[in-house]
Amino acid sequence: MTEPLSTETREKLASVSTATLTTQLFKRGLRNVFLQSVSRLTAAHDRSMVGPAFTLRYIPAREDIDTLDVFQDYDHPQRKAIETCPEGHVLVMDCRGDASAASAGSILVTRLMQRGAAGIVTDGGLRDSPEIGDFEIPAYIGAPSAPTNLIKHHAVETLNQPVACGGVAVYPGDIMVGDLEGVVVIPRHLADEVAKDAFEQEILEEFIIGEVRAGKPLRGTYPPDAETRARYEAWRKERDG
């Protein structure tokens, strides 16, 4: 069972950018952590997404198996994923980067939202995307796509196993953080320290941006030399009271 995030860690992750998080993960040797070709659908809402991953994997559909009557089974893996994704988790769907068919639609996303999920991420499509775009739940997609999942995607029975999404390995319990730029995957065991260091990095960068706006050159400012660092410490002391 994934150890729950502390309130402090969750709040810090929600307050920093995915750009900052990718830098902190790079410092720890992790390069492939930002989902490719996956973008925010609910861009009108600036609330960041933070939550552990709960995964669903799709393989290519086959015409003799994936027919509309499979949805008569309420335990169909796609529907089961919606009904079992824990509160506060992010449903992450592996569609092999194929957005030519939907991986879910507005009814399923509404149910996921009502169950308290923290978000939905797919490297496939979502149908009913104009409607979902107005939802409060953060949603990230490969592209809008009207066709039903069954024409391209077969939902695998075993849920919450390691998957690939946007070209990135996602393990159950990994922490998914999304902002308006995209989604980053943080191994759970690194989440607390990454949140702390990312929060500190953004305070320093707030100061550096102020220095650059005041006319300071990059040399000695970014990265900060000893003189700039001293000014930062004085600024930080005053800022924090």
Biggest sheet details: 8 strands, mixed
Here the CATH topology of the largest domain equals Glucose Oxidase, domain 1
> Which value, in Å, is the CA radius of gyration?
20 Å
Give the integer mean of the pLDDT values: 96
Instruction: Indicate the low-confidence ranges by residue numbers.
Output: none
Please name the fourth-level CATH homologous superfamily of the largest domain: Ribonuclease E inhibitor RraA/RraA-like
Global outline:
elongated
Distance from first to last alpha carbon = 40 Å
Count of helix runs: 7
Oligomer: single chain
The counted number of beta strands is 12
Number of individual domains = 2
CATH architecture of the largest domain: 3-Layer(bba) Sandwich
Structural class: alpha/beta
Query: What CATH first level of the largest domain would be assigned?
Result: Alpha Beta
The fraction of residues assigned to DSSP E strands is: 15-25%
- What are the secondary-structure elements, in order, as H or E? HHEEHEHEEHEEEEEEEHH
In which range does the helix fraction lie?
25-40%
Quickly list its features.
about 30% helix, 8-stranded mixed beta sheet, alpha/beta, about 240 residues, 12 strands, two-stranded parallel sheet
Describe the structure.
With 241 residues, this protein is α/β, with parallel strands linked by helices. It folds into two domains: 32-186, Glucose Oxidase, domain 1, CATH 3.50.30; 194-240, no CATH class. 32% of the residues lie in helices and 20% in strands. It has seven helices and twelve strands. β3 (90-94), α4 and β4 form a beta-alpha-beta unit. α1 (7-15) packs parallel to α6 (191-213). The longest helix has 23 residues, at 191-213. The two termini are 40 Å apart. The model has no long low-confidence stretch (mean pLDDT 96).
